[in-house]
Amino acid sequence: MNFENKTILITGASTGIGKAVAQKLLNENCRIILIARRSVLVKEYVDASLIKKNAPLIIKCDVSKKDEVASAYKLIKEKYERIDIAILNAGVGHTVTTKNYNSFYAEQTFGANFFGIIYWVEQLLPEYLKSRAGMIVGVSSLADNRGFSGSGFYCASKAAASIYLEGLRVELKSFGIKVLTVKPGFVKTPMTDQNKFKMPFLLPADKAAQIIIDGIKKEKRIIQFPWQTVFLTKIVGLIPGSLYEYFASKVKMK
Ligand SMILES: NC(=O)c1ccc[n+]([C@@H]2O[C@H](COP(=O)([O-])OP(=O)(O)OC[C@H]3O[C@@H](n4cnc5c(N)ncnc54)[C@H](OP(=O)(O)O)[C@@H]3O)[C@@H](O)[C@H]2O)c1
After folding, report:
1. Class of domain 7-248 (CATH, top level)
2. I want to staple 109 with a disulfide (CB 3.0 to 4.6 A). Which of 68, 101, 153, 197 is the partner?
3. CA of 89 to the centre of ligand 1 (A)
4. How far is the CA of 196 from the centre of ligand 1 (A)?
5. pLDDT at 254 over 60
6. pLDDT tens digits, residue range 28-59?
């Protein structure tokens, strides 16, 4: 697949991975739609890019709110006939321990990381099913296979996203609709800049964006990287629960 003349939606386009993907797509011959709550940040880098041809459509939208996603989709349909590829990347990651425990973080995390995908799929599906074409790229995480201390809400939201995307991939296969799951390891972004622990095999956002774009072009079912973290998380996933919990409980949260 190539991006020539395609219409591509990216959520979470104001910072980090979404911004890096968007900046690369600004140089491709495609139409892009950029979604974030801080749409001013998107406008700043789009203006700075001096791209005049195929200026992106920038929409302020909170993806955890079903009505805002529906309104954003309506705006898109006024300008474009269809969306060919939807990169559903918006997400949040809070460290929540016994010290700051509050269900608000769970609501916000599931709102963006899980429902932020569900609400967009709800809008896209009728058109995709009618045309028997289209691609959904959901950004999950390699943190989807175990519960890590202080990241319970985040890991649970990503496990939910990965399992949901897998089910969707199976169901939509016979309709010619592609569902891809992106599972990054640690990537340097404002999200991980808050982490106080050492992040192994940390990648620059620009490199992560290129891997994601290459994976989409190859229509890879699962785009996971870097290989070292993929390998480590596979091993951690295979360890019996009791053994995992013994060692994981030795890691002290700050
Ligand atoms: N960085 C990593 O190491 C890593 C690893 C695995 C997976 N991921 C996943 O990659 C994705 C991007 O993360 P990132 O690292 O690039 O983080 P980031 O720099 O914090 O970017 C997150 C993006 O999501 C948007 N967002 C968050 N909540 C939103 C909401 N309710 N409505 C609309 N947009 C929302 C933010 O925009 P606004 O705040 O302007 O709305 C921002 O553009 C996330 O799904 C994350 O879980 C990241």
Report:
1. alpha beta
2. 153
3. 6
4. 18
5. no
6. 999 999 999 999 999 999 999 977 677 999 99
